[in-house]
Amino acid sequence: MEIGYVSSSAQDLASSSYSSPSSSSLPAGLASMPTRAVKIIPLQHPETTSFAGDSSVWSNALFSGWVSKIKRMTAVEWIDLFLPCCRWIRTYKWREYLQLDLMAGITVGVMLVPQAMSYAKLAGLQPIYGLYSGFVPIFVYAIFGSSRQLAIGPVALVSLLVSNVLGEIVDSSDELYTELAILLALMVGILECMMGLLRLGWLIRFISHSVISGFTTASAIVIALSQVKYFLGYDVVRSSKIVPLIKSIISGIDKVNFTSQSGKSFLVVC
Prior knowledge:
The chain has 270 residues and is mainly α. 59% of the residues lie in helices and 4% in strands.
């Protein structure tokens, strides 16, 4: 069977010009050859397709796939989904890993105490809040976490961002500053839980490595310049920009007491 592709305006060709020819109109040599019917398929133009219908069908199929997957989940799979600790605790080798994990936990805990307190001071909070933010998330993540490589707890970048955001609203010595910091932590936690439930971790792919490296490097410089005040012995303006910090350090260089321990250290470094 021969198939020909023609436009939809040539529908009448099926009954006229593309009909099987008679044997009288053919040459003598071809009269004895068998004839073959021709099937005409109308050509569908691209503008006649419906993209809205295709997208709705795709979304319905995706939703139905999620629903069917949820219906097939058992009680154990639901527990493993919300409590990942139940998944890895079944394959945990107690005799092989317990002693090593205890040593690692004690080492990290000893180092976390001064580190968390310094992060709290960087954020403009009391040191006790650094201890809270350092130890409580670790115990919570041991139950609800699923990654063995992820670091949990306060970091310098987050402390710097909290200080810059809340410092423009209220002074760090005010009690309202602590309340706003707790409220900010609650809001960020709710937002991260929503992003985790919606599986929005793929959004980080749109942030290039150069942007992350530049942000990390600039934050390290800002943090180092903001902590110079403890080394030089005088106050430095609180800012998230490098230029104002450098200007503040240079303008107060005459306040350095070179007879003190910090002043002698400054001379040694210079």
